[in-house]
Amino acid sequence: MNASPAGTTQDAAAAVRERFAAHRLAWGDADAYGRSFTEDADYITFYGGRLTGREGVVEGHRGLFAGVLAGSRLWAEITGLAFLAPDVALVHARGAVLRGRRTRPGRRALSVQTYVLVREPDGDWRIRAFHNTRHRPRTEALSAALARWAPKAH
User: Fold this and answer.
1) What's the angle, vertex CA 85, arms to CA 58 and CA 129, rounded to 5?
2) Ramachandran assignment for 58, one of left (phi > 0), alpha (psi -120 to 50 degrees), beta (any other)
3) Cα dist from 29 to 10, 33, 81, 91, 138, whole Å
């Protein structure tokens, strides 16, 4: 866990991690999945689509869970957790959809994800914003190489 402002506790970090785990396990059930989000959530899919509000997230997944994503599971792990304020957590993660007998994602299925979670008045942590970007190692390597060759600013 990264440094946190005064007043945040290990209890808050544990609660954020619990929400993250519950969110992952809710995959496949649109209503349960939606309960991880705030009413005014903002959700960016890996292909750049945008779902707004809890209902938008639920309805955006209902057909997927009944169709192309039926029977799939969500694999996810937190790679970074920081508190921006006592009631606001920034989570970086890696995630992927698993199908069949897979227990780990393939390289081409892996996404890099950013979550902003807020502690709501009822004390529960929920996802206010989510951004999912497909990880492309070759593109990342090419981009890094091009950056090294760029002219230096004086």
Assistant:
1) 20
2) alpha
3) 30, 6, 26, 23, 34
34 vs 31: CA distance, rounded Å: 5
Kindly report, residue by residue over 90-115, the tens digit of the pLDDT.
999 999 999 999 999 887 889 999 99
pTM as predicted: 0.84
3-state class of 72 per DSSP? Answer: coil
Q: 54-87 as b/e, with b when 16 or more CB fall inside 10 Å?
A: bebbbebbeeebeeebeebbbbbebeebbbeeeb
